[in-house]
Amino acid sequence: MEWWNDIQEWFWGLGNKYQVDPLIFGGIYVGAIPFFFFSLGWLIRSIQRKKSVVLPVLFTGFFFVSAYLYLIVVGENIPWWVYLVIAALVGYGAFSTYQKVMQKSRDR
Q1: Number of domains, the chain
Q2: 63 contact partners, CB below 8 Å, separation of at least 6
Q3: What is the pLDDT of residue 34?
Q4: For position 25, what pLDDT does the model report?
Q5: Stretch 49-78: mean pLDDT, rounded?
Q6: Which of 25-34, 43-52, 95-104 is predicted with the least confidence, judged by mean pLDDT?
Q7: Is residue 108 scored above 70 in pLDDT?
Q8: CA 25 – CA 18 distance, rounded (Å)
Q9: How far apart are CA 108 and CA 105, in angstroms?
Q10: Are 42 and 53 in contact (CB under 8 A)?
């Protein structure tokens, strides 16, 4: 069961690496997985049905980085790509909101 020892070592090492409680970080990390896959399925269905993908993209991205949001609030040594993904999500949300507002103002 060496693989189990490797998993435990990795898991408890997260607390030291990011200076956070590994149980909270790991709980968010693992707990977000089903929500990520649900929102990914929602995104795929929305694309197939030619519906708006704004909410599915935002939810999928949120669940992808949810554990790292915890790190930003309480941790240290956050990977640079986390900031990039969060900035992209915020930018995408702002841009799509702007487009909807402009479209509604043109329709009036």
Answers
A1: 1
A2: 32, 35, 36, 39
A3: 96
A4: 87
A5: 88
A6: 95-104
A7: no
A8: 9
A9: 5
A10: no
Q: What percentage of residues in the chain have a pLDDT greater than 70? A: 98
Q: Would you give the distance in Å from CA 24 to the centre of its chain? A: 16
CB atoms within 10 A of CB 25: 21
Helix/strand/coil (H, E, C) string of the chain? CHHHHHHHHHHHHHHHHHCCCHHHHHHHHHHHHHHHHHHHHHHHHHHHCCCCCHHHHHHHHHHHHHHHHHHHHHCCCCCHHHHHHHHHHHHHHHHHHHHHHHHHHHHC
- pLDDT at 81 exceeding the cut of 80: yes
* Number of other CB atoms surrounding residue 52 within 10 Å: 11
- What residues make up the domain containing 85? 2-107
